[in-house]
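Regression report. Comparing outputs from two consecutive submissions.

Submission 1:
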Amino acid sequence: MVKKVTFDDLLNGSTQAQLAVGEVVDGKVLTVRKNEVLIDLGPLGVGFVPRREIGFGKKLEVGEEVNASIVESELDSGMVLLSLRKAAKDKGWDEVQKVVEEGKNIEVTPFDANRGGLLIEYEGVRGFMPVSQLSAEHYPRVTDKDEILARLNALVGKPMMVQVLDVDKKANKLIFSEKEAIRDGLSQRFASLKVGDVVKGRITGVLDFGAFVNVDGIEGLIHISEISWERVNNPTDYLKNGDEVDAKIIAIDKDRLSLSLKQLQEDPWMTEVEKFKVGDEIEGTVTRITPFGAFVQISPAVEALVHISELGGGDVNPEKVFKLNERKDFKVLEVDKENRKISLSLKK
């Protein structure tokens, strides 16, 4: 335990003998300047605290009583070099341990960020919150590293509720988690939701495979196949970050919702398919070529298949018969509304 120097100590021995590096002294703030603070140590003289040893976000007033740790007992100026940050840190580890034992949430304010997460100081102890421990609201759902850093920097200086996830004083390790702090609240919200519910959310990330949605702190995913009844090649053509959307819950996983936009819209396929009857001769555009045939767009919402067996028999290569985006004449062989399938043959 760190020893604190008192006036009685001075009466029983020399000042120099008592001013040991690492010990803690009491004092009052004399002056507060941009890059330094001076502390009145009484019989011990005057203490000097450089800006880096004050501590993140700590605001001092003249006359305020403080505890400081001795870094050097005597500088060339005759003053004592002190650290408020170190004294607070020593005391802070006890507070951190108390927080862990009580399992309570605490409010912290990040003071810096890197691509891996947020840097946080709590009661003088510096810790870290990895990106993986951010809530759905704050998690940067982007792939560009510079954009990730920009989003994390936007959280610097903003208070947030967290829990201590891991602590090791000897290793100087302190890890925070925002996800753990909101877990109980999320469990209650999950319990109030069911498949089929329509919820409101905000788009937090749009990627190749779909879009992430923040639904009152719960993370949801709209897969690319659930964005629209139309064929979606690029989700960014339909959604962007910050969009407010209504979506239908189609599945509830352990900690995520699966959502659908298209299931809140009328299925245009069921309307447009009424135009086609077996035997109709139609024109369509080749959209995909596969080893087993080709897909053809015959209306804005309806795509049909020309199977390889309808290309004349034998070992026919569909790539020899079709070209992407070319228009050809076809004949309707089958309309299967139940399975949402139309079969075509290539009109000779």
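Submission 2:
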Amino acid sequence: MKHDLKNTSYQKLLGDISFLLERARNQAYKAVDNIRVQTYWQIGERIAREDLHNKSRAIYSKRIIRKLSKDLGFGRVILYRILQFYNVYPIVSAVPRQLSWTHLVELLAINNPTERQFYEVLAAQNMWSSRQLREKIIEGVYFKKGKGSLFEKQVFLVPKEPAAVFKNIYNFEFLNLSGAHSEKSLERKLLSNIEKLLFEFGTDFALAGRQKKIVIDQQVHNIDLVFYHRGIPCVVLVELKIGRFRSEYVGQINKYLNYYRENKKYPWEKDPIGLIVCRNKGKEEAHYALGNITNHIFVAEYRTKLPSAGDILKKLKELNS
């Protein structure tokens, strides 16, 4: 019997697989781009530090960038842009975490720091693509709103959208964990490096507790970590898992969120958010497990070891080719 590959069943199969492939590509790109931004900042800082030792800085910069371009196989334009990136954002924590390198390239073209920050905030909060950001800049939204207006002064205090706050992958390389580790050792290491953990999570996070006990039907439950996010504002409940994501984790943290919303939430706060951080979240399990959940629950992976410098350089060259 000859099968008709144009039927509805096949078209649905094709659509589902195309969706999974596209999502995987997007996740991989975000992970690589996050490494790219961090690496570019470090490269810019290193070049700038070298410049400080030379009196003829402008001449030296041109010479060193020309030489680096040849030896590394990088274009001079991208190296100049990397140096400009560091000069504009000399404090790495000031780099908007939700924005990609292509977003930052658009922002670097803006000389006015206030105007630049205006677009930074709106791009992150509205999850604009780099193309949308470019269009808003060309449109002159900053000037239409009125320079020095009340809107401009208040825009930085607009509550943040949860989707713009949480990352898909968290870098826990600073923990120096061995390949095999327990959830307790992971939690203990994170708490002993709380400053680095908060830096990785974001500047608006504050630690509110660990192993927080709640009682439901006379059963004691312990929540691994409790954070507070000032920009949303809300409580964030975090569950740490050392293995692969499992669908029952959603039911567990959903129960905690409902308890907090009904018993711990202040009137001015938004509903609590759940974050499950695991070693591997898979490609489909989290997607289907979170379907139709009314509470905000995010699933992220953690990394205890980043790619080598050689692997990163190879990826960066591919992105810039």
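Expected: both submissions complete independently.
Actual: both completed, but the second showed a warning that disappeared on reload.
Relevant detail on submission 2: The two ends are 48 Å apart (CA to CA).
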